[in-house]
C-alpha cells in the first residue's frame, strides 16, 4: 500500500492514498494522525497526487477526503479519474453490502471526492500555486498510470508510483527525461527479480492454459477488471484464433465491456502498435471472449474464466474458486502479486486447507500456478530509470524489506548516491543544497563573458566582481559602479600605501625592473605588468620606486593597494621573500 | 530581437522569430487560395471541362490555348493546381532551430520547409495537431495523385506574358514560387521531425529560451505559444476561439504580462455570427431535402464538420430527416471520425465527462451506428452502389478545385433542386464557383469561423495587457469592401506594429538582465549589509561558469597547495588565504567620529591639517598619514601592517 507525505520547500504533498487489502479493520487505511491529530487535512496539505487507479494507491482517497476531511486539489490523469471511482464503488459494494461493514465511505462520498479531482495531462506542467509545480510522465503500469515530478524552486522530487520499463501487449514503457531530481522515490515490488523475457512467460502461460483445457479442466484467472486482464485477453484472443480453439472464454462482471470501452477511448495511453492500427482494427474488440454468467460456473466441460478481484479476497473470483477448488483437473492462475492475508497469498504459499468464514474449511485440490504478469519494473528496470532521471538521492518504497536491502546495496554501489528505504510511519529527511537564482545585469555578464574568452581555462579561473542588490524579493547582481549609481551613492576610495626601504645601489628604473623580473619568476600564475609610467602592477597592487633624498642607495618602495582588493596582498607576500 | 514575416496571409501565418540566439519559426501555413486560378481536377472525364475554349489575347498576338482555358469570362490555368509557399528567400531556412505549430490548418507547408532545405531542427506540436494534420496532408496528396495531370503549365508565368493576362491571373504575385503538392514520402519525412508536447508543458530550447503551448480553443489540440526567458516574454496568438465548441477552452490568463504579443488568425468573417450561420445551414439543408434535392457541403475533413454533425444529430429528428442518408466522403473520413473520439484530454469539459462514463465524446458515433451517417474513402467502390438520393454529402476540397467535390459539382450543378452550402471561410464562394458557371444549383453561403472577432480580441488585449502588439497589416485597417466599418480593425495604444509578406520587424525589446545561479557555498559566504531601509548590498567576487546557456557563479577556488618538495626547503610560504570579498565603500568619513575611534584605539597624537578637499591627519607616533577626502581615503604608513581596518570606520556605509 502506498501513501507518502513529502515536504519540500515548505510545501506538503501527499503521494497516493492507498488501502491495504489484507486488513479488514482500521489498519487498512493509512494512519492520517501522522499529519494531524485533530481535524481536517486541508490546512496541512498543498495537494494530493494519485499515480494510478489500483486500490493500493487510491483506495483510501474518499476516506481521507470525506471522512478525515480534505478540500484541496487531488491530481490524477484522465484515465485514472475515469476508472478510479468505478473500482472504489465496486470495492465499497463488496465490503459494505456483502460483508455488512460500517465505518466505510458511501457512494456519495466517492462522488464528492471525485469532484475535487483535477485532471492531469502527460508532460503538462501544472502550477499548483506560485511555487509548487508538478508534471506527469508515462509510467506504463496500467492504463493512465503516471510518474510525477514535483518541483519547488530548485528542489525537486520524482515519485514513480508503479511503473514498467518494458512495453507489453497493450501498454508502452515508462519514460522520464533527465530531470535530475533531489530524490527519486521508486516502487520496488520486484526489487530482486530480473525477470526472464516476456515472450517465455507468455508461452508458459498459454501452455498451461492449453494443457488444462485439453484435459477438460476449468481455468480460473483472478484479475482486476482493468489492467492485466486486457493484456491476457489480447494474448488468449490471438492464441485462440491461431489454434482455432473452441473452449469458451468468459470475463466476469458487467465491468468487462465497460472496461474495454475505456481502453478504446483512451487509446492514446496504450502502446504504439495498438495506437497505430486502431482505425483499422481495435484490439479491444474481442471475438472469442464473452460475458460470464454466474450459472456458467457449473457448466460441464472446459472453460477459461477471468474473474474479479485479483487476490481472491472477495467477490466473484472467490465464489468460483470455492466451486472449483475441489477438482484437481481445474487450475487457478494467479497473474499478479497477492497481499499477505488474502486467500491468493495463502494458496500461493502452498496452503492446501483454507479456513473460510463460518468456520468451515476448504480443501484445495486444483492446480495453483503463479505467473508474474503484473507490470512492475524489475531490478533492471529500476536501475534503468535511475540512469534516465539521474537523481541525487534514492528512496525505495512499496516492496519487501529484505529485497529492498539488496537493491539498495546495488544502487549505492553503481551510482554512488544515497539510498533510503523507510518503513511505514518512518520519516526520512534529505538535505538539499539549492543554488540561489539571481538576475545579473546583461552588461556585466557580457563584459565578463567577453573577457573570459571563448573557452574557460580551468587552471586560471577569472574572478568576477559585482554587487548584489537585495531589494524586497528581488536579487540583482550588477557591477559595483552600477550599484552605486542605482542607489545614488558615491563611491569612497580607500587606498593604503606602504613605504618599504631597502638597500640597492642600482638606479630607480633598474631596481624596479629587478623587482619586476623577480616577481615574475616567483609569482607564477598572477598578472604582473611593467607599465610605461614607471610602475609595476601585481594584480591590482601598484609598486613604485624612488630614491631616498639622503642616500641614493636607499630605495623607497611604495606599495599601494585599494581596500577592495586587499586580498591581492597575499600573493605579494609570497613574492617578497627575496 | 527580430521577426521575419514569410507569409502575408493573416490566418495562414508563417513567421520567424530570432530571440536570444534561437531561431524559431511560428507556424507554417500554406496559402491555398492560389488554386482558385486553376481548372478543377475531375475524377471522371468531364466533357464540359475538356471542351472549354483555350485563351487567346484579344488582338490575337498571344496564344496560350494549351495552358489557359476560358469559362464564363474567367481564365483558368489548365494544370495541376499549385500552392503559394511561405517566402523562402528572406532567410536561410536551414538555420531554423525549431518550428512551433499552433493548429493543424497552419502546418500544411511543413514538407516544403523541412525537406530539401537543409532544415535540421525540431517541430513541436500537440498530438491531435500532428494526427489530424497528417490526415489533412494525406488527403491533399491523395486528391492530387489520384488524378495525375501530365501537363504542367509554365509559359503563363513569364513576366511579360503574365502582364498581358486578364485579372485575377494578372495580379497574382510570386507565381514563380508556386509549387505543386508534395508527396506522401515527403509528408512522412516531415512529420517524423515532430516532437509531441502537451498543453502547459515547458520545453527548454538550448537552455536559453522556454516555449510552452497553451490551449487556444479553436480546434482539437490547437495552441497558442509562450516564448520566454527569465526576463522576456513573447506570446504568439494564432487561431483562437472563445466559443464553446468541442475543444478545450482557451487559456487566456497565461498570456498576461507579455512584452510582445504576435496576433494572427482572427476570424475571416467578422460580420458572420457562427451560431446564426449554423441555424441557416440547418434550415437550408432541410428545405432542399424536403423539396427532393441534394445538399452538397464542401468541407475539410476535420474541424467544423464535427460540430456540423453534432448539430445535425440534434436536428435530424425534429426536422423529420430520419431517413435521409448523410454521406461523408474523403480518403481519411473514417480516420478523422475515429481520431476525434480518442482525444479526451483535449476536449471541452462536457465531452470529457462523457468519456468518463464511458461513452464516445462525439455523437457522430451514434449516427454511424444507426446507419444515418455513412463514410466512404471515395465516390468509387462501395459508394457508387449504396448511394441513394436525395442525400446530404460532406466532402472536400472546399476550394472546389480537386477532391470528390468536383464530381458532385458536375453531377448536381445543373439542377436547381440541389443546393451547395459553403461553411468553410477560407475561399470566396464566388471564386470557388467560377469554373462551374453557368450553374442552376442553389448556393448558400454560411461561413462558420469560430476564431476571435475584433470585439473579442480587443477585450482580450485589455485583459492581458501586452506592451506591444504585432499583427498582419490587414488587421490595422477596415476590410476593403467595408471601409466605413472602423469596428472591424484593431485600435490600440500604442498602435499595433503591422507586418506584410517579407517584412522584417525589429521588435522593441531591451534585454537588461539574465538569470545566473549562485552556488550554495558562495551564497553562504556573502555578507549583506543594509544600506537603506529594505535594501541590502553584498559584494560578490566569484568565478563565472557558462554552460549550455546556463550561468552559475562559484566561489573563487583556493589555489592548489604547493606540493612539499625536498629541493626547496626554504619555502616558508603561508597557505594562501582566500578572503571574503571586501565590502564596497561609499559616503564620506566624518572627521570627528573618526578621531574618536582613533582615540579608542589608543591613538591620541593626531595632527589635523585642513586642505582644499578635506583633511590630512598625521599620526605622529605611528608615522602615518591619512588623507581624508569627500570620495576617498588614502592611508600612507611605513610598516607593513596597516593601522586601521576599514571596519572601524565609523558611520561609514560598508557595502
TrEMBL record, chain A:
Residues covered by the Metallo-beta-lactamase domain: 1-213
GO molecular function: hydrolase activity; metal ion binding; RNA endonuclease activity
Domain Beta-Casp: 229-347
Keyword RNA-binding: no
Keywords: Cytoplasm, Hydrolase, Metal-binding, Nucleus, Zinc
Reported cofactor(s): Zn(2+)
GO cellular-component term (any): nucleus
Family the entry assigns: Belongs to the metallo-beta-lactamase superfamily. RNA-metabolizing metallo-beta-lactamase-like family. INTS11 subfamily.
Main location as per UniProt: cytoplasm
GO process annotations (BP): snRNA processing
InterPro entries for this protein: Beta_Casp, INTS11-like_MBL-fold, IntS11_C, MBL, Metallo-B-lactamas, RibonucZ/Hydroxyglut_hydro, RMMBL
Lineage of source species: Eukaryota, Metazoa, Chordata, Craniata, Vertebrata
Record-linked Gene3D superfamilies: 3.40.50.10890, Ribonuclease Z/Hydroxyacylglutathione hydrolase-like
Organism whose genome encodes this protein: Dicentrarchus labrax (European seabass)
Compartments, as annotated in UniProt: Cytoplasm; Nucleus
Protein name as annotated: Integrator complex subunit 11
Automatic annotation (TrEMBL), chain B:
Main location: cytoplasm
Domain Beta-Casp: 305-433
Key word Metal-binding present: no
Superkingdom of the source species: Eukaryota
Region entry Disordered, spans: 548-570
One GO-annotated biological process of the protein: regulation of cellular response to growth factor stimulus
Keyword tags: Cytoplasm, Nucleus
Protein family (similarity comment): Belongs to the metallo-beta-lactamase superfamily. RNA-metabolizing metallo-beta-lactamase-like family. INTS9 subfamily.
UniProt cross-references to PANTHER family, sorted A to Z: INTEGRATOR COMPLEX SUBUNIT 9
Protein known as: Integrator complex subunit 9
Amino acid at each position: 500500500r502506498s501513501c507518502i507525505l513529502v515536504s519540500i520547500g515548505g510545501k506538503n504533498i501527499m503521494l497516493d492514498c492507498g488501502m491495504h487489502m489484507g486488513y479488514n479493520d482500521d489498519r487498512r487505511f493509512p494512519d492520517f494522525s501522522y499529519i494531524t491529530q485533530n481535524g481536517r487535512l486541508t490546512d496541512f496539505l498543498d495537494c494530493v497526487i494519485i499515480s494510478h487507479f489500483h486500490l493500493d494507491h487510491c483506495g483510501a482517497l474518499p476516506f481521507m477526503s470525506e471522512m478525515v476531511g480534505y478540500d484541496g486539489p487531488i491530481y490524477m490523469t484522465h484515465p485514472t479519474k475515469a476508472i478510479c471511482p468505478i473500482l472504489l464503488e465496486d470495492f465499497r459494494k463488496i465490503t459494505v453490502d456483502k460483508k455488512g461493514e460500517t465505518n466505510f465511505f458511501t457512494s456519495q462520498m466517492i462522488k464528492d471526492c471525485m469532484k475535487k479531482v483535477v485532471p492531469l495531462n502527460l508532460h503538462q506542467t501544472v502550477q499548483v500555486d506560485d511555487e509548487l509545480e508538478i508534471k506527469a510522465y508515462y509510467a506504463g503500469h496500467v492504463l493512465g498510470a503516471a510518474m510525477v515530478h514535483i518541483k519547488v524552486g530548485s528542489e525537486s522530487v520524482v515519485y514513480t508510483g508503479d511503473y514498467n520499463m518494458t512495453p507489453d501487449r497493450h501498454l508502452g514503457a515508462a519514460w522520464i527525461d533527465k530531470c535530475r531530481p533531489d530524490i527519486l522515490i521508486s516502487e520496488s515490488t520486484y526489487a530482486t527479480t530480473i525477470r526472464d523475457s516476456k515472450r517465455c512467460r507468455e508461452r508458459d502461460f498459454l501452455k498451461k492454459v492449453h494443457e488444462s483445457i485439453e484435459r477438460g479442466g476449468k481455468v480460473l484467472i483472478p484479475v482486476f477488471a482493468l489492467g492485466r486482464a486486457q493484456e491476457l485477453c489480447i494474448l488468449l484472443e490471438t492464441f485462440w484464433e491461431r489454434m482455432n480453439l473452441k473452449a469458451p472464454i468468459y470475463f466476469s462482471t458487467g465491468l468487462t465491456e465497460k472496461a474495454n470501452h475505456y481502453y478504446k477511448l483512451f487509446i492514446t495511453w496504450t502502446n504504439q502498435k495498438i495506437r497505430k492500427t486502431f482505425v483499422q482494427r481495435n484490439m479491444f474488440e474481442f471475438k472469442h471472449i464473452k460475458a460470464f454468467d454466474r450459472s456458467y460456473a457449473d457448466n460441464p466441460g472446459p472453460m477459461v474464466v477471468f474473474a474479479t478481484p485479483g487476490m481472491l479476497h472477495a467477490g466473484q473470483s472467490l465464489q468460483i474458486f470455492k466451486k472449483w477448488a475441489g477438482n484437481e483437473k481445474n487450475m487457478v492462475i494467479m497473474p499478479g502479486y497477492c497481499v499477505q492475508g488474502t486467500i491468493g497469498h495463502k494458496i500461493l504459499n502452498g496452503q492446501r486447507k483454507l479456513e473460510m468464514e463460518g468456520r468451515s474449511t476448504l480443501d484445495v485440490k486444483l492446480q495453483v500456478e503463479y505467473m508474474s504478469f503484473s507490470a512492475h519494473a524489475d531490478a533492471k528496470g529500476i536501475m534503468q530509470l535511475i540512469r534516465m532521471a539521474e537523481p541525487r538521492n534514492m528512496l525505495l518504497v512499496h516492496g519487501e524489506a529484505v529485497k529492498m536491502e539488496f537493491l539498495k546495496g546495488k544502487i549505492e554501489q553503481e551510482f554512488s548516491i544515497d539510498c533510503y528505504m523507510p518503513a511505514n510511519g518512518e520519516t526520512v529527511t534529505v538535505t538539499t543544497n539549492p543554488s540561489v537564482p539571481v538576475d545579473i545585469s546583461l552588461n556585466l555578464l557580457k563584459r565578463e563573458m567577453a573577457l573570459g574568452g571563448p573557452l574557460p581555462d580551468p587552471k586560471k579561473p577569472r574572478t568576477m566582481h559585482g554587487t548584489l542588490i537585495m531589494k524586497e524579493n528581488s536579487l540583482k547582481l550588477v557591477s559595483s559602479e552600477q550599484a552605486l549609481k542605482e542607489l545614488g551613492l558615491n563611491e569612497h576610495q580607500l587606498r593604503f600605501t606602504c613605504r618599504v626601504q631597502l638597500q640597492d645601489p642600482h638606479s630607480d628604473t633598474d631596481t624596479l625592473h629587478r623587482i619586476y623580473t623577480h616577481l615574475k619568476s616567483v609569482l607564477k600564475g598572477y598578472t604582473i605588468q611593467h607599465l610605461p609610467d614607471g610602475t609595476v602592477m601585481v594584480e591590482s597592487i601598484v609598486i613604485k620606486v624612488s630614491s631616498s633624498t639622503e642616500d641614493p642607495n636607499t630605495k623607497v618602495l611604495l606599495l599601494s593597494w585599494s581596500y577592495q582588493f586587499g586580498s591581492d596582498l597575499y600573493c605579494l607576500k609570497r613574492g617578497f621573500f627575496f | 530581437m527580430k521577426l521575419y514575416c514569410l507569409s502575408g496571409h493573416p490566418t495562414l501565418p508563417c513567421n520567424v522569430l530570432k530571440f536570444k540566439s534561437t531561431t524559431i519559426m511560428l507556424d507554417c501555413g500554406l496559402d491555398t487560395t492560389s488554386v482558385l486560378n486553376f481548372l478543377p481536377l475531375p475524377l471522371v472525364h468531364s466533357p464540359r471541362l475538356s471542351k472549354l475554349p483555350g485563351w487567346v489575347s484579344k488582338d490575337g498576338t498571344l496564344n496560350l490555348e494549351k495552358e489557359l482555358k476560358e469559362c464564363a469570362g474567367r481564365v483558368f490555368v489548365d494544370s495541376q493546381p499549385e500552392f503559394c509557399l511561405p517566402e523562402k528567400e528572406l532567410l536561410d531556412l536551414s538555420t531554423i532551430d525549431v518550428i512551433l505549430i499552433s493548429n493543424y490548418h497552419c502546418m500544411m507547408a511543413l514538407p516544403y520547409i523541412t525537406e530539401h532545405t537543409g532544415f535540421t531542427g525540431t517541430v513541436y506540436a500537440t498530438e491531435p495537431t500532428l494526427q489530424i494534420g497528417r490526415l489533412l496532408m494525406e488527403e491533399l496528396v491523395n486528391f492530387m495523385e489520384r488524378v495525375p495531370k501530365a501537363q504542367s503549365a509554365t509559359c503563363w508565368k513569364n513576366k511579360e506574358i503574365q502582364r498581358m493576362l486578364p485579372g485575377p491571373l494578372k495580379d497574382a504575385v510570386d507565381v514563380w514560387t508556386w509549387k505543386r503538392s508534395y508527396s506522401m514520402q515527403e509528408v512522412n519525412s516531415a512529420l517524423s521531425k515532430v516532437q509531441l508536447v502537451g498543453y502547459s508543458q515547458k520545453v527548454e530550447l538550448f537552455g536559453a529560451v522556454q516555449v510552452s503551448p497553451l490551449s487556444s480553443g479553436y480546434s482539437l489540440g490547437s495552441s497558442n505559444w509562450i516564448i520566454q526567458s527569465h526576463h522576456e516574454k513573447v506570446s504568439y496568438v494564432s487561431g483562437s476561439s472563445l466559443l464553446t465548441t468541442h475543444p478545450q477552452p482557451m487559456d487566456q490568463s497565461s498570456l498576461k504580462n507579455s512584452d510582445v504579443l504576435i496576433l494572427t488568425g482572427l476570424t475571416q468573417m467578422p460580420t458572420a455570427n457562427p451560431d446564426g450561420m449554423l441555424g441557416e445551414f440547418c434550415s437550408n439543408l432541410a428545405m432542399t431535402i424536403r423539396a427532393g434535392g441534394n445538399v452538397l457541403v464542401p468541407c475539410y475533413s476535420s474541424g467544423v464538420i464535427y460540430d456540423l454533425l453534432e448539430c445535425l444529430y440534434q436536428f435530424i429528428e425534429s426536422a423529420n430527416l430520419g431517413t435521409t442518408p448523410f454521406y461523408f466522403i474523403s480518403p481519411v473520413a473514417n480516420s478523422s471520425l475515429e481520431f476525434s473520439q480518442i482525444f479526451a484530454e483535449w476536449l471541452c469539459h462536457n465531452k470529457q465527462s462523457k468519456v468518463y462514463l464511458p461513452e464516445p465524446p462525439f455523437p457522430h458515433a451514434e449516427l454511424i451506428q444507426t446507419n444515418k451517417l455513412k463514410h466512404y474513402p471515395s465516390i468509387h467502390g462501395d459508394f457508387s452502389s449504396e448511394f441513394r438520393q436525395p442525400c446530404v454529402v460532406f466532402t472536400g476540397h472546399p476550394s472546389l478545385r480537386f477532391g470528390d467535390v468536383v464530381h458532385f459539382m458536375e453531377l448536381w450543378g445543373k439542377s436547381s433542386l440541389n443546393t451547395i452550402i459553403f461553411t468553410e471561410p477560407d475561399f470566396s464562394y464566388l471564386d470557388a464557383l467560377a469554373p462551374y458557371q453557368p450553374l442552376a444549383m442553389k448556393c448558400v453561403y454560411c461561413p462558420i469561423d469560430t476564431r476571435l472577432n475584433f470585439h473579442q480580441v480587443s477585450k482580450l488585449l485589455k485583459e492581458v495587457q501586452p506592451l506591444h502588439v504585432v499583427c498582419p497589416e490587414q488587421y490595422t485597417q477596415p476590410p476593403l469592401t467595408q471601409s466605413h466599418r472602423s469596428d472591424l480593425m484593431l485600435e490600440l495604444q500604442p498602435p499595433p506594429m503591422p507586418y506584410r509578406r517579407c517584412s522584417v520587424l525589429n521588435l522593441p525589446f531591451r534585454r537588461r538582465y539574465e538569470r545566473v545561479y549562485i552556488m550554495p557555498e558562495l551564497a553562504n559566504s556573502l555578507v549583506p549589509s543594509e544600506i537603506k531601509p529594505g535594501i541590502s548590498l553584498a559584494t560578490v567576487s566569484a568565478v563565472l561558469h557558462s554552460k549550455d546557456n546556463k550561468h552559475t557563479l562559484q566561489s573563487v577556488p583556493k589555489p592548489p597547495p604547493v606540493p612539499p618538495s625536498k629541493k626547496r626547503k626554504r619555502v616558508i610560504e603561508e597557505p594562501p588565504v582566500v578572503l571574503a570579498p571586501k565590502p564596497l565603500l561609499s559616503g564620506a568619513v566624518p572627521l570627528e567620529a573618526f578621531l574618536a575611534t582613533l582615540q579608542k584605539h589608543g591613538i591620541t597624537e593626531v595632527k589635523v591639517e585642513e586642505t582644499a578637499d578635506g583633511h590630512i591627519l598625521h599620526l605622529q607616533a605611528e608615522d602615518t598619514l591619512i588623507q581624508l577626502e569627500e570620495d576617498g581615503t588614502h592611508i600612507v604608513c611605513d610598516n607593513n601592517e596597516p593601522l586601521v581596518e576599514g571596519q572601524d570606520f565609523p558611520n561609514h556605509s560598508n557595502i
